[in-house]
Write a structure and sequence with these properties.
This protein has 4 helices and 8 strands. By secondary structure, the protein is α+β, with helices and mostly antiparallel strands.
Length: 152
Amino acid sequence: MKKLQFKTNIHAPVAKVYDTMLGLKDKATYEAWAAEFNPTSTFEGNWEKGTKILFIGTDENGEKGGMVSEIAENIPHKFVSIRSCGILKGDTEITEGEEVEEWTGGLENYTFEEHDGLTTVTVDMDTTEGYADYFNETYPKALSKLKSIIES
């Protein structure tokens, strides 16, 4: 797995950044910044530690797909860790086999730190070599979108 890191500074209290990023008060706030990855991005489940969460979107053919994940840790307003458990193809969760072995166990961690009304969001993630360029291009756009949603 390849490790990537992305950061942004947002002029807002940490609670607002955390709630907006995770879509806790309104799922549409999560969907708005995650749309940079896929215009139909959403999630099913919740952000409680130990729970399953599905990150879903539809492809250009209208097929549902995404990631099957687990919330490995959630310390409100401080840290969220998402562990990859497999992929979703249509309504089928694939959690074993060649297709998912390179993703399984990978983490996507969000760290939130506030200093004087400025919140720094740090994303540390594991990815495959084949997706590194995609995330290096798309994650900064997604964080920029998150920043504009919160600061507007």
